[in-house]
Design a protein that fits this description.
It comes from Psychroserpens ponticola. This is Endonuclease. Belongs to the EndA/NucM nuclease family. InterPro entries: Endonuclease-I, FN3_dom, FN3_sf, His-Me_finger_sf, Ig-like_fold, Lamin_tail_dom, Secre_tail. Keywords: Endonuclease, Hydrolase, Nuclease, Signal. By secondary structure, the chain is of the alpha+beta class. The chain folds into four domains: 263 residues, no CATH class; 80 residues, Immunoglobulin-like (Sandwich); 139 residues, Sandwich (Immunoglobulin-like), CATH 2.60.40.1260; 75 residues, Immunoglobulin-like (Sandwich). A six-stranded mixed beta sheet has the order 20-19-14-13-23-24. Helix 4 crosses helix 5. The radius of gyration is 34 Å and the shape is elongated. It starts with 31 loop residues before the first helix and ends with a strand. 40% of the residues are buried. The N terminus is likely disordered.
Amino acid sequence: MKHFYTLLITLITLTASAQIPANYYDHATGTGYTLKTQLKRIINNTDDPEISNTIEEEHNPQSYNSLDGFNSTYERDYYYEAAGSNTILDMYSENPSGADPYTFSPGSDECGNYSGEGDCYNKEHVIPQSVFGSQSPMYSDAHHLIPTDGRVNGFRDSYPFGRVNDSQLVSQSGIDNPTDNGSKLGNNLNSGYSAGYSGRVFEPIDEFKGDIARIYFYFVTRYEDQVSSWSSYPMFDGSSDKALADPFLNILVTWHQNDPVSAKEIDRNNNIYYSHQNNRNPFVDHPEYVALIWDTTPDTEAPSDPTNLVASNPTDNSIDLTWTASTDNIAVASYDVYVDGTNTFNTTETTFTATGLTADTNYCFTVKAKDNSGNESSFSNQDCETTTDNGSSGGDIDIFFSEYIEGSGQNKVLEIANFTGADVNLSVYTIKLSANGAAGWTSGFTFPNGATITNQDVYVVANGGASVCSGEYDYLNNDMTSFNGNDAIGLFKNDVLLDIIGELGNAAVYGEDITLIRKSTVDRPTTTFDIINEWDESDNCDDLGDHTQTLSIDDVALNQFKVYPNPVKNVLNIELQSAKKTQVEIYNVLGKRVISKTINTSATIQTEHLSNGVYILRLTQGNSTISKKLIKN
């Protein structure tokens, strides 16, 4: 059993902060030896034009001697010994379940001469350098060079790795066999998964057999173009594709399966990539590649069905989707996203935004998983959502004009309020003016870079010469704040009219020498100006810089719907007494909307993807809204 100890090692190893670079394996598609060749092109030292559209950082070979400093810094035992930060991790002497038989101090215990086990450590070529004639870059490739006890390194010599027959161990002076940690040298056990070879082999302990296997898979992939010329080595078969002889391929695949990738391997892979030679071992990052390349048995098993599909957060032209990942006997390759029964999108993630949709339209989604062999799952559950309409029919929650000041001279001020439940960046919003009953809008005023309205706050734009309540101004602009009492003023989002003061094309005076404040019952923008029902007149600007919203619940009475269970776990039930278009929104404690869905009859809302905690459930029918506290367990 492995024993791992948590140490403060962030200055030495790269773990959570060092991940697989985005897009690094984009070109690794397909199966079999085609996939192996694609991986070779990703990790070799050549700029391959066929993968120029992905992240490709060529292998940058370093000198053999540079491994000394790398080993001293990164090859330390942070994984098995509570006080092991200043000892070398040697796979040939490590005792994973107890005290090591001996330890090595980085640098000071490094040597070239030794007489017995425990004297010193040096660098072991996992693929013996005699195989490739000590040529570069193989000679100094850190992915197959590991620090090991010098005497055990010499004991292993250039023998292949295998499964030792305990009745045929080799005897050598100066070393016990098995060694102090149980590694051993002897004739291969020519039966079971190691059948087919009876020559002498070296066997590491179980803890590190997968490590050795993945080093070999890396080596025959990285040097695919050369490995066919090294056929005198028993582990290689003289080919460039399969590369590994059958007995040893069976051994390595078994070791790979029985000893999964460890934290030590992940750290080592990251350290080699980020701090030494710029390339990675794909079989540490993606263990499933082994079966995809070397398993000649056809894969006919389909992935499991995706579950818990949730459609949420609609905009005019997009809807967010999330679902629970499928599983597969080898690996899920991607997901097909169906829109109203048509296969429309493909993604490798379990979150996706469906784009290019039509405003104010209901869409129903399903998802299928598929693997690299073309096997497909059945459909996930179906979930539907309706895109918004930018307020053109009064149906969308968004920012809106909350105060209008038209005074003498240059005292012209506009206030915009945000009660959406989340902070709003103003980069996609503009204000436009239509003067004296003109039929069209001006080109528009854009907000300063980075301008944002926090939730339940306002943003004030004033004429540069205005002087009333000047302490509340957020920005000065003379183009859109030179209006008179008969000019129409529009608030636009993505160049679509969202809210309006006045009437486009009508030169009648509606607001001259006056302050108008939006009624507290208004919670969304509208493209129809209703001064009687939506605005109150004021004779001062004391309310500038602040706005109050008090929502009516006349039409959404508590006896018109039921919400259960609360606390909720995976599914929230909403029962409507009568069919009526109802907007269901859930906000977290930071004011961010995490679920938005339009229902017309009783429905269920998937909440499995929400974290445990307190939320606000908001139900809207027409212009009336009610909010309830919702607890997720």
